[in-house]
Amino acid sequence: MGASRDRILNSMKVQPTPQDKGLVLTLRLVAYDNGILELDGIPLSDLPQEDGWVAGVGVMAQTVHEFQKQVRARRKAL
């Protein structure tokens, strides 16, 4: 399955720190009994277990990359 950039941006949870000194990215990974993995509401894979976990890592990396872009933009705006 995987996820597009737009889908990641719409589902990722980024909030300012309590004193607005930075940003917090919260990732929610769910592993269902039927083998499907879901990251922030995005189904990652229905592949055999090991392959599904590897696909999940790829989507997590994409999400962290998008978070990094938001952090850079925030720092630039200061």
Describe, in plain words, how this protein is organized in 3D.
It contains two helices and five strands, in the order H-E-E-E-E-E-H. The chain has helices at 5-11, 49-77; strands at residues 13-16, 23-26, 29-31, 37-39, 42-45. It has a three-stranded antiparallel β-sheet. Strands 1-2 form a two-stranded antiparallel sheet. Strand 1 and strand 2 (23-26) form a beta hairpin. The longest helix has 29 residues, at 49-77. It is elongated, with a radius of gyration of 14 Å. It starts with a helix and ends with a helix.
Quick structural summary:
The protein has 78 residues and is α+β, with helices and mostly antiparallel strands.
What are the SSEs and their pairings?
Layout: H1 5-11, E1 13-16, E2 23-26, E3 29-31, E4 37-39, E5 42-45, H2 49-77
Antiparallel strand pairs: 1-2, 3-4, 4-5
Keywords:
about 80 residues, about 45% helix, three-stranded antiparallel beta sheet, 5 strands, two-stranded antiparallel sheet, single chain
Helix percentage: 40-55%
Ends distance? 38 Å
The ordered H/E elements are: HEEEEEH
Cα-atom radius of gyration: 14 Å
Instruction: Report the sheet-strand fraction.
Output: 15-25%
With helices defined by DSSP (H or I, 4 residues minimum), what is the helix count?
2
Number of domains: 1
